[in-house]
UniProtKB/TrEMBL annotation:
It comes from the Bacteria. Keywords: Oxidoreductase. InterPro entries: NAD(P)-bd_dom_sf, Sc_DH/Rdtase_CS, SDR_fam. The lineage of its organism: Bacteria, Pseudomonadati, Pseudomonadota, Alphaproteobacteria, Hyphomicrobiales. Pfam families: adh_short_C2. It comes from Labrys miyagiensis. This is Oxidoreductase.
Length: 248
């Protein structure tokens, strides 16, 4: 029996990249998965097709995590489709980089609304349905360990994710619900390609500092998340797992 058989998972921001790999991996381990997307319906549908064609269960659900009603709708869709919720992966995230002189109010609020408020709103909606043995996995970032220049706002959002994880682990501990962060370092995705990070001096610098000597791949992160979602990680809560090949 697969280690997540009978479980139901919501993965936010799962239409591509790390989120898509997480959704597919949870499904491959037996979970029924809600594949959330904000705008890329085609991408989410492709993830669902990949899961169902492999014999898994998945549905695509649109929703902007930074809007309270839509965040609740994502969770409600899981209950409507599968009748329960066991795993929440708060993966939705946006990023923009630049020196402090270029930061705008709009940029600040966009990143905090999705990366921090969105996490809180979906978690808030999920708490009515998560029970003993439930697992919340927040996707952080290795940037909080290395604090690279020109990332002040993004790094601040991920620092908030780390501290929220610690708080919620204590809040939900009495209910036997675990809360952890998995923090990737630079990972090769559609997003990092389009942002110009891949095949750049930045990439070369990251690889040079990484003991295992390569970039992360989405599957590297997804496998760690699947472990954290399972009962194999039953004694872990409030933890921050750096999934970055040793970069810190």
């Amino acid at each position: 029996m697969s280690k997540l058989t009978g479980k139901v998972a919501v993965v936010t921001g799962a239409s591509k990249g790390i989120g898509a790999a997480i959704a597919k991996t949870l499904a491959a381990n037996g979970a029924a998965v809600v594949v959330n997307y904000a705008s890329s319906k085609a991408g989410a549908d492709q993830v669902v097709e990949a899961i169902t064609s492999a014999g898994g269960k998945a549905v695509a659900v649109q929703g902007d995590v930074s809007k309270s009603a839509e965040a609740k709708g994502i969770v409600d869709a899981a209950i409507a489709a599968y009748g329960r919720l066991d795993i929440l992966v708060n993966n939705s995230g946006v990023y923009e980089f630049g020196p402090v002189e270029t930061i705008t109010e709009g940029q600040f609020h966009k990143m905090f609304d999705v990366n921090v408020l969105g996490l809180l709103l979906v978690t808030q909606a999920a708490t009515a349905h998560l029970g003993e043995g439930g697992s919340i996995i927040n996707i952080g970032s290795g940037v909080t360990a290395i604090t690279p220049p020109q990332t002040a706002v993004y790094t601040a959002t991920k620092g908030a994710v780390d501290t929220i994880t610690g708080v919620l682990a204590k809040e939900f501990g009495p209910r036997k619900i675990r809360v952890n962060t998995v923090s990737p370092s630079l990972t090769e995705t559609e997003g990092t390609h389009s942002a110009g990070m891949i095949a750049s001096e930045f990439e070369a610098g990251i690889i040079a500092q990484t003991p295992l000597g390569r970039l992360g791949q989405p599957q590297d992160i997804a496998d760690v998340v699947a472990f954290m979602a399972s009962d194999d990680a039953r004694w872990l809560t409030g933890e921050r797992i750096l999934a970055g090949g040793g970069l810190r």
